[in-house]
Amino acid sequence: MCLFEMGFEEKAIKLQVKEEKACERKKICLHAFTDLTYVAPIVFLYLLKECYVHGNLKATKKFRALQQEVHQVLCNSPQPGPATFVAYCLYILPIFGSYCEGFSHLIVSAFHRFLKTAATTGDSLEAKIIAVRLFLDIIEGSIDHDERIAVKILEVFDIKLTDIEKVASQSKAKNDRRFHNVKAFLEQYIFGFIESESYMTAVNLLEHFSIRQSGESFLVKMIEKKQFRAAEKWATFMGKPMLSMLVQEYVDRNKLKSAYLIVKKNNLQQEFPDVHHKYKESALKKLAEKACWDVAEAKANGDRQLVEYLVYLAMEAGYLEKVDELCNRYSLEDFPKAQEHEAIILQHCFLNLNELGVEDIIWVDELNGLGKATCHIEGSKVVGLDCEWKPNYVKGSKPNKVSIMQIASDKKVFILDLIKLYNDVPDVLDNCLTHILQSPRILKLGYNFHCDVKQLAQSYGDLECFKCYNMLLDIQNMFKDPRGGLSGLAEKILGAGLNKTRRNSNWEQRPLSQNQLEYAALDAAVLIQIFYRVCDHSHTADALDGHNKIEWKSYIVSHMDNPRKSRKESRLRKEPEPEVKDNEA
Questions:
Q1: Helix 514-537, helix 485-494: angle, nearest 10
Q2: Where do Basic and acidic residues bias regions lie (predicted)?
């Protein structure tokens, strides 16, 4: 059959597609159904399939274009009526195989849109009878439709339990005994979805038919299977007692945000007066774990109880300057003794610079200091490297520029203010760091350093010093399953971890606090001590990580390409035979 017979003529719909702020016009081959008086649903569906198959847009855009076309079709008075026409189409669609599910959703959604604008379809009663029979055939298994389509048929044709009972009674007159008790039959059908863990479908059907037999056990089962949307919809349908039960389940599982939103939405503040406060405390704790103290303070909004909790979190994290700041700002007088007590605890819990043998932290932000630092570092055989930059919590935004670079020798840690040095003496900075980073005589230690390498190249792409690395050893690569990051590795090798609470602090503020300086210095200095311990153990039977000997030399790499280039161009190359002797390390 020609596609242009029976009153169809070719039509093109132009779609406006926004891609990277540019508008591009694309076309899809469709047909204008100007007269549907003599067009059978099977012909309509066949032409719809041809439009889809031969359309030149991607699937999602084709779906939207065809949905618009089907909506126009329903406005052109298909016979015997738009609702009946849709019902017959849904009956026929299973013969179209793989197109059935997608086209069913397409036609139902177009019909739903049509119903919003049409005053009446004029054939709703006849269509409802056909839709009921279709639904019964689906649940009986004689018509193969997706379960979601079955639910949508109920919704879009507004099929109630009484409608099904009426059609079923007519079937019983013809000796069809499938539906002697329609409600029991539907409950059994819905129970099948519960058994197969299709909870949202089951909830939609229970709500549609106002069946309230399932109770607490059903709610708990959905929560345990993490079907939270279904659980919330079910609880809302069941009413306040079930909603209260859901809130308590969320609280017990520490899902405080979900509990708070349900309490707020359903006016359950009287039943759960503490949920809001617990949720706020939970939010503050998450911010504190990221060291977002300013954001956390703003969230507290001056609430004294929340501010006191924030002070407690700062004490727990060892962020003592924040404790002082909050206590002074909000006139909190009961915390100094607790602060001193916490400081003593922290000294015993985490590594400190004295334990690592560090005698001095030197801040470098001008020409003379950079020259002295370079001379000292060039005289070292092993140095530890690390970088810090201000975190950016705006989704989708670029990371901030690397603020400082820490370079540690055995006894000293130099902290380079990259931002200032780059602005003041970029050529000298480039030359000094080139001598250090590209020197074959200095073994440079890092941890997960490929991340720092990438960030340095993005921050200072015009400097040559960050495009080439010689004698670089990433400590992380020496262990099969390093858990807990650098702090976890330090605890495993040296017996104590690092206090990482300042990792996400503002590294662009000047001057840096003493705690920030110590944190930055520790990250670089600890690498040297871990390396020495690994080298000591590599010659003993009590080697680390389950190996008789750690061949650390084989992990030394050079990075000769700019990390901003393609992945193929920026691979790390292993050095076949590094010229570093054990006794030099």
A1: 50
A2: 572-585
In the block, tokens 């012909």 appear at 43
Average pLDDT value for the chain: 80
Contact 562, 457 (CB under 8 A): yes
Q: What is the largest CA-CA distance in the chain?
A: 103
Q: Which long-range contacts (CB under 8 A, 24 or more apart) does 309-314 make?
A: 309/281, 309/284, 310/284, 311/335, 313/284, 313/285, 313/288, 314/288
Question: 129 falls in which pLDDT band (50, 70, 90)?
Answer: very high
> Predicted confidence band at 92 (pLDDT cuts at 50, 70, 90)?
very high
Q: How confident is the model at residue 574 (pLDDT cuts 50, 70, 90)?
A: very low
Q: Kindly give, in sequence order, each residue whose CB lies less than 8 Å from that of residue 500, ignoring residues fewer than 6 positions away.
A: 485, 487, 519
Distant-in-sequence, close-in-space partners of 284: CB < 8 Å, separation ≥ 6: 296, 299, 300, 306, 309, 310, 313
Joined together, the tokens standing for residue 128 give: 């409802």
Which region, left, alpha or beta, applies to residue 291 given φ > 0 means left and ψ of -120 to 50 means alpha? left
Cis peptide bond upstream of 273, omega within 30? no
What is the residue type of 86? Answer: V
14 forms beta bridges with: 27
Note whether 254 and 247 are within 8 A (CB).
Answer: no
Tell me if 481 sits within 8 A of 335, measured CB to CB. no
How far apart are the C-alpha atoms of 104 and 67, rounded to whole Å? 11
Phi-psi region at 301: left, alpha or beta (left = phi > 0; alpha = psi -120 to 50)? left
| Per-residue model confidence (pLDDT) at position 347 | 52
Whole-angstrom Cα distance, residue 17 to residue 176? 53
d(CA 486, CA 488): 5
Kindly compute the dihedral angle of the four CA atoms of residues 180, 181, 182, 185, in this order, to the nearest 10 degrees: -100
Whether residue 182 is predicted with pLDDT greater than 80 in this model: the reply is yes
| pLDDT at position 432 | 96
How confident is the model at residue 25, as a pLDDT? 39
3-class secondary structure, 221: helix
Strand partners, 385: 407
Instruction: Write down the pLDDT at residue 352.
Output: 83
CB contact set of 160 (below 8 Å; sequence gap of 6+):
209
- Where residue 122 falls (left for φ over 0; alpha for ψ -120 to 50; beta otherwise) is left
One-letter amino acid at 346 equals L
Portion of the chain with pLDDT greater than 90, in percent? 40
R_g of the chain computed on alpha carbons: 35
Q: Give the three-state DSSP class for 212.
A: coil
| Cα distance between residue 66 and residue 109, in whole Å | 11
Unique residue bearing structure tokens 């055995």: 410
The DSSP call for residue 484 is S
Helices (H), 301-391: 304-317, 320-329, 336-349, 367-378
> Which residue bears the tokens 């602005």?
423
* Per-residue pLDDT, 508: 92
> What residues have CB less than 8 Å from 338, skipping those under 6 apart?
315
Transcribe 244-293 into DSSP letters: HHHHHHHHHTT-HHHHHHHHHHTT-TTT-TTHHHHHHHHHHHHHHHTT-H
* pTM of the full structure: 0.54
